């Protein structure tokens, strides 16, 4: 009888371990650090990032009669539920499905914006934005410039889920921001949670330049915060200092901000140093001033992003910082990024610039 | 044998029908159409592949013949004399401007040019049938549309020279015109990108209260092979946009003949497949183009998208960077220039109506030629925009990186100005 119970317990343990291990494989590689500060006064309500994005679009559709929301499967609420309930509320002519064609979605959105409407286009995954690359880089980004300011598609915002999700492999994990950062004329914004998502998305929609709004999809449900109920905006092109420190500056955006927040905690416990953590928030135009001022103070810089290392946006930051802060740098700028390989399926835990890789790079940086 | 079996089948069907009548359940195999969500179509028991020979070619609508004679009087459009003459003058203006600017490129006075020879009829026929509030998206060989809508030769020439009077501020290559005032969206070089944009603009129009505007989008037979063309047709159809897509099928995309561009019945045959109201027209006949576009417009403003394929022949070289005799016989060009010349045909029509004659022709042609030459001389003398315009309008507001780069260039020019053509540009 005892042996039977022991056996049963052992089996149960095995099962629990199995579940734990599989969940470890699929679980996120970060701990979410919610924002505690309210960006504006007024009532707040608990929202995850998906709900905050939905709320931003709801506010836009309510206040701007020209605004429309479209993309693949947007009508029923979108595959990530960001458009949930909006078609019922605002009608099929304002929230609608398009044919499955990314170049068409981008081109259609540019045309709408050119004709004076507010266009919010959704590309289902950032991995599938490349068919629209020509429309975004050659057309959207250059519209105002080439017409001498006669025409522009500034009222266009392209939203797209990006980044690692645990098991997305090659085509449900990419972070394509650096491809677009090389195209003058387009703004690129990445939120780190619910509060920033709402404020930055409303800024993108109201901004007079075409914006690419990349939403780290792993945060859709995990990022829950007390989000202001009213409309508010956060400035595009401005970074935020989330932790003050003097030993090194850590820069990231999107999900990776949470990795670095944990790294700064680990650094305090294990290395006994205080790091300054900066969320860049805007990739283009990016806030070189905030980053450089921080590096002038700390003398050390670590940049981390999920996208591959070579020609990733970290390279641009590193080059600018070495130019602006040469006399202040105590160590070479460190970049911890995805490896220069396609984003893999079963190897994701080894591919991502996780807290251990960042911590080790930081340890090297501090003792350099 | 076949008859016999069909008789027995007929009997069997009668029995089946009788059974169905007494049965409470209907037999799906007897329903006329299959129930697949993707298509409304009947079943058949015979395999039949369809290809380009399965249908008759789409016919080409025309109003006048090559001698300018109206073929069917009922089809002659009621256009007032003033407009008719204006259409002709626009074609002539364009033709003279093309000749002189083409030559000026050969002399190295402008960097690039593209003529409109042979396609002038599509331009004026369509432009005359549109409202000036309709928004035009074009490819690059539609200058007659711009002239008819009121763009002046002076504006066009300024753009080609990129001087400070060019509203585009000298940033784009010659022939990349645009005019906010005339509802002509600035052209860009990437082919077919304007097509889904036109559809999006049309959707924005559709949503404005009491909309009476439509969007017109021009493109060539080569551009129709781009993915964006497919996107545009499909979006226009599914989203029911007030848009008229006008294909200029002139037989060539640079050196590629249509035989190597597609194997179906031209571009028009694709229209019905996307749910577009489609028609093919003789593009060398301005009156036929007028009729077709006018009819298309009444459909489009009711959110019924239209595809028009205007057949023509590219008489000139593709551009000043191209010698078309390298890939097509000179006799072919000559034949089209003589027999199907849209300007010539339209002139014969006007002469029959007593609206034009040799004297008017000589005077007008001479005047225009002189005007173009004078305009060019003026445009040439005008300074180019201030170099700082190079970094303006990238964004609505200039971001810090561009402010910094402006300062860098300013500093650089202070030191090295003798190595730059400063005197040709406006200065502070």
Question: Which key terms come to mind for this protein?
Answer:
heterodimer; A: 368 residues; alpha/beta; 7-stranded mixed sheet; 5-stranded mixed sheet; 14 helices; globular; B: 428 residues; 5-stranded parallel sheet; two-stranded antiparallel sheet; 13 helices; EC 1.2.4.4 (chain A); mitochondrion (chain A)
Describe the structure.
Chain B: It catalyses: N(6)-[(R)-lipoyl]-L-lysyl-[protein] + 3-methyl-2-oxobutanoate + H(+) = N(6)-[(R)-S(8)-2-methylpropanoyldihydrolipoyl]-L-lysyl-[protein] + CO2. Chain B: This is 2-oxoisovalerate dehydrogenase subunit alpha. Chain B: One of its GO terms (biological process) is branched-chain amino acid catabolic process. Chain B: GO terms for molecular function: branched-chain 2-oxo acid dehydrogenase activity; metal ion binding. Chain B: Keywords: Metal-binding, Mitochondrion, Oxidoreductase, Potassium, Thiamine pyrophosphate, Transit peptide. The complex is a heterodimer of chains A (368) and B (428). Helix content of chain A is 40%, strand content 18%. With 368 residues, chain A is of the alpha/beta class. In chain A, the strands form 3 sheets. Chain A has a 7-stranded mixed sheet with strand order 3-2-4-5-7-6-12, with helices on both faces. In chain A, helix 4 runs parallel beside helix 5 (133-139), helix 10 crosses helix 14 (355-367) and helix 11 (288-298) crosses helix 12. Chain A is globular. Chain A starts with a helix and ends with a helix. The mean pLDDT of chain A is 94. Chain B is an alpha/beta fold. In chain B, the strands form 2 sheets. Chain B has a 5-stranded parallel sheet, sandwiched between helices. The longest helix of chain B is centred in the first third of the chain and has 26 residues, at 81-106. Chain B is globular, with a radius of gyration of 27 Å. Chain B starts with a helix and ends in a 12-residue tail after the last helix. Mean pLDDT of chain B is 93; it is low at 1-10. At the A-B interface, helix 4, helix 5 and helix 6 of A face helix 6, helix 7 and helix 13 of B.
């Amino acid at each position: 009888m005892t042996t039977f119970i022991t056996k049963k317990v052992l089996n149960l343990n095995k099962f629990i371990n199995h579940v734990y291990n599989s969940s470890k494989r699929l679980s996120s590689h970060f701990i979410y650090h919610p924002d505690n500060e309210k960006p504006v006064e007024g009532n707040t309500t608990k929202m995850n990032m998906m709900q905050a994005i939905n709320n931003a679009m709801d506010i836009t559709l309510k206040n701007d009669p020209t605004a429309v929301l479209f993309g693949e499967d947007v009508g029923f609420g979108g595959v990530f539920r960001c458009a949930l309930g909006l078609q019922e509320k605002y009608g099929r002519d304002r929230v609608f499905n398009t044919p499955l064609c990314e170049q068409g979605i981008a081109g259609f959105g540019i045309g709408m914006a050119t004709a004076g409407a507010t266009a919010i286009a959704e590309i289902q995954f950032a991995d599938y934005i490349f068919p629209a690359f020509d429309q975004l880089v050659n057309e959207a980004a250059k519209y105002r410039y080439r017409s001498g300011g006669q025409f522009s598609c500034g009222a266009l915002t392209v939203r797209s889920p990006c980044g690692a999700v645990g098991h997305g492999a090659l085509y449900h994990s990419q972070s394509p921001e650096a491809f677009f950062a090389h195209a003058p004329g387009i703004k690129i914004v990445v939120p780190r949670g619910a509060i920033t998502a709402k404020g930055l998305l409303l800024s993108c929609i109201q901004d007079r330049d075409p914006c690419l709004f990349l939403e780290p999809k792993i945060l859709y449900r995990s990022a829950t915060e007390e989000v202001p109920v009213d409309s508010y905006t956060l400035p595009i092109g401005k970074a935020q200092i989330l932790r003050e420190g003097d030993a090194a500056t850590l820069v990231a955006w999107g999900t990776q901000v949470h990795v670095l927040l944990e790294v700064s905690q680990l650094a305090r416990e294990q290395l006994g140093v205080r790091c300054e953590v900066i969320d860049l928030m805007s990739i283009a135009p990016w806030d070189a001033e905030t980053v450089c001022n921080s590096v002038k103070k700390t003398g050390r810089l670590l940049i981390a992003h999920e996208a591959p290392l070579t020609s990733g946006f970290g390279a641009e930051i590193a080059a600018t910082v070495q130019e602006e802060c040469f006399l202040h740098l105590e160590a070479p700028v460190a970049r911890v990024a995805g490896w220069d390989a396609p984003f893999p399926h079963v190897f994701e835990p080894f591919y991502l610039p996780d807290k251990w890789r960042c911590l080790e790079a930081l340890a090297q940086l501090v003792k350099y | 044998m076949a008859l016999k079996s069909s008789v027995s089948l007929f009997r069997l069907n009668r029995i089946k029908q009788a059974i169905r009548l007494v049965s409470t359940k209907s037999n799906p195999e007897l329903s006329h159409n299959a129930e697949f969500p993707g298509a409304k179509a009947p079943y058949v028991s015979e395999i039949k592949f369809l290809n380009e020979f399965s249908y008759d070619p789409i016919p080409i609508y025309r109003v006048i013949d090559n001698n300018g004679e109206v073929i069917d009087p009922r089809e002659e459009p009621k256009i007032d004399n003033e407009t008719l003459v204006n259409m002709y003058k626009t074609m002539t203006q364009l033709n003279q401007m093309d000749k002189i600017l083409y030559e000026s490129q050969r002399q190295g006075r402008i960097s690039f040019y593209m003529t409109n020879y042979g396609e002038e009829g599509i331009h004026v026929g369509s432009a005359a049938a549109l409202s000036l509030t309709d928004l035009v998206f074009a490819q690059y060989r539609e200058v007659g549309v711009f002239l008819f809508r009121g763009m002046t030769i002076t504006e066009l020439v300024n753009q080609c020279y990129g001087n400070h009077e060019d509203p585009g501020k000298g940033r784009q290559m010659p022939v990349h015109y645009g005019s906010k005032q005339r509802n002509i969206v600035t052209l860009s070089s990437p082919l077919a990108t304007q097509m889904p944009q036109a559809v999006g603009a049309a959707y924005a129009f559709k949503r404005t209260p009491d909309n009476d505007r439509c969007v017109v989008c021009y493109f060539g037979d080569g551009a129709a092979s781009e993915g964006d063309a497919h996107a545009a047709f499909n979006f226009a159809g599914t989203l029911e946009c007030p848009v008229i897509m006008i294909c200029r099928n002139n037989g060539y995309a640079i050196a590629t003949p249509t035989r190597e561009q597609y194997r179906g019945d031209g571009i028009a045959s694709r229209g019905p497949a996307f749910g577009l109201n489609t028609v093919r027209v003789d593009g060398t006949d301005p009156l036929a183009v007028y009729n077709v576009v006018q009819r298309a417009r009444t459909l489009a403003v009711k959110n019924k998208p239209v595809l028009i394929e205007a057949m023509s022949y590219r008489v000139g070289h593709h551009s000043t960077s191209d010698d078309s005799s390298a890939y097509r016989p000179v006799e072919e060009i000559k034949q089209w220039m003589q027999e199907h010349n849209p300007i010539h045909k339209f002139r014969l029509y006007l002469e029959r109506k007593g609206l034009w004659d040799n004297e008017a022709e000589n005077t007008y042609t001479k005047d225009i030629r002189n005007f173009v030459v004078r305009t060019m001389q003026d445009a040439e003398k005008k300074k180019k925009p201030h170099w700082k315009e190079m970094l303006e309008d990238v964004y609505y507001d200039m971001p810090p990186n561009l402010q910094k780069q402006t300062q860098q260039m300013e500093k650089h020019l202070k030191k090295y100005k003798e190595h730059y053509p400063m005197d040709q540009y406006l200065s502070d």
